[in-house]
């Protein structure tokens, strides 16, 4: 771990440049065409939510902040109609979690691809973080050959606010106790590993109560999903977790605790499940994890506040390095907490290219540790994000270098040749970074997601 360094002196010009970057994403959705579609889709989502509540009285998500799935809660409407457009396949799913709350989600994959594929479970953030906000990641990963689950965490979107019976209040509200983002991650993983021979049955609630009967009853009635609809595609030995915000804390902890998990990506922010520094938040359960699973954090620059210490974001990553675990922390210049959750409203500011950088490193990380893909190494060692052409046109002051200018980005990897490679400042560059990463042109998650399956890669 590098020696602590003093914070950089405040530079108004740098601060202004970073602040202006946070207005970039709104140029995507403040167009007449996007706004028209957003309102059209939002009205359809509202009517669909009302129809669900009317047709299934046992569902109770009307008290959720984003129950209507409309306007800023709609996510990126460019990603709707994914299967209809021939981009891939997706199935809606419903299942009861360990408290008896009904969880709403989707499973993503492609028609083309290997017979068996790695599995990724995505855990969203808290308060205003519907699953639609993470479809960018689900679709990008599905196109890369993964089976992916996105869900509305309990008390968000179309997932129930409360559990059942004596467990109705367990973990509610989720922001206080964190149960949703720890237990919910495990419940989602359990669901994705269910099969026709072994239908999903949630584990016991923390109270010791079982809500398996509710899941079984609703599945028999055709209301809940009995098992993962794409179970045949899942390679149960190759499982990864990704999460955002409180969900990042959840996957940081569960990923080190659950023996089934082989790789972790945490979007703002990777935390240390063993305690300080940068500890995971409350809500965890025994046994205490052992740091052994490769974990990548992707975070964002300061946003108008005090300039942090250069290594402020990397404390959990340093702890993993000390344990000999491959890790990293990528910090987006001028980025915000909403780089990873697409909310089409100016109040939730974000950069234009941050989401592409996140998609790039997320895919490459899982490709390295779940697929042993030989091309993943060059994609992780790439220098492209130090000289991104698109970002340079948007922010000439940054000259296309997307790594934070105040908080360091790092990687600690074991290379194919067996050597350990550590770079403590990706913005400045390190020996071993490569220009030839095997991907031509500017990278765009949207281009990947919205490419018909019949189109050559």
Could you please describe the fold and organization of this structure?
With 457 residues, the protein is α/β, with parallel strands linked by helices. The chain has one domain: 3-Layer(aba) Sandwich (Rossmann fold). 28% of the residues lie in helices and 14% in strands. The chain is built from 13 helices and ten strands. The protein has helices at residues 12-21, 26-29, 32-55, 135-143, 174-177, 179-192, 212-220, 246-257, 315-322, 354-371, 376-380, 389-394, 445-449, and strands at residues 89-96, 102-109, 117-123, 147-151, 234-244, 263-267, 295-300, 327-332, 410-414, 420-423. It has a ten-stranded mixed β-sheet with strand order 1-2-4-3-5-6-7-8-9-10, sandwiched between helices. α4 crosses α10 and α6 crosses α8. The protein starts with 11 loop residues before the first helix and ends in an 8-residue tail after the last helix. The model has no long low-confidence stretch (mean pLDDT 93). It is an enzyme of class 3 (hydrolase). Keywords: Hydrolase.
